[in-house]
Model the fold of this input.
Amino acid sequence: MDVNLLQIAAEEEQNPLVPPMPELVIGLIAFLIVFGLLAKKLLPRINEVLEERKAAIEGGMEKAEAAQIEAEQTLDQYKAQLAEARHEANRLREEAREQGSALIAEMRAEGQRQREEIIAAGHAQVEADKKAASLALRQDVGALATELAGRLVGESLEDHARQSRVVDRFLDELESKAAAQSGTKAEAGA
Done:
C-alpha cells in the first residue's frame, strides 16, 4: 500500500493539467516573444490593410453617391430634352397642319379659278356655237325663204346679193317682233 500511495503521490505531482513551472515560464516567454513580433510586424500591416479597405469602401460610397447625383442630373437633362423634343414635335405638327390648311385653301382657290375659266370657256363656246347656229339657220332659212318666195312669185330669185338683203330684212323683222313681245311680257309681269 505504501507503494500505491507513493505512486498516487507521484501522479499528483505530475498532473497533466498543471504543467511544471520551468515549462510554464519558458512557454510564457516564448508566447511574449511571438506576441511581440506579431504586434510589431503583423498588427501594423493588418491595421494598414483595414484602413485601406475602409478608405476604399468610403471612397466607393462617395463615388456611388457622386454617380447617383450625376445619374439624377443626366435623367433630368434627358427629361428636359424629351420635353423639348415633344414641344418641338407639337410645334412641327401644328406648323404642318397650318401648311396643310393653307395648301387646301390654295388648292380650293385654284380649283375655283379653274372652274371659273372652264365656265367662261363653256359660255364662250356656247355663244360661238349659238352664233354659228344662228348664221347657219339664217342661211338655211334664207335659202328656204328665197326658194319659197321664188315659187310664190314664179320668178327665180337667184341673185345672191338680192337674196341676202331679203333674208336679212326678213330675219331682222322677226327679231324685232320677238324683242317687242318679250318687252311687253316683261312690262305685264312687272
Notes: Helices lie at 2-13, 21-153, 160-189.
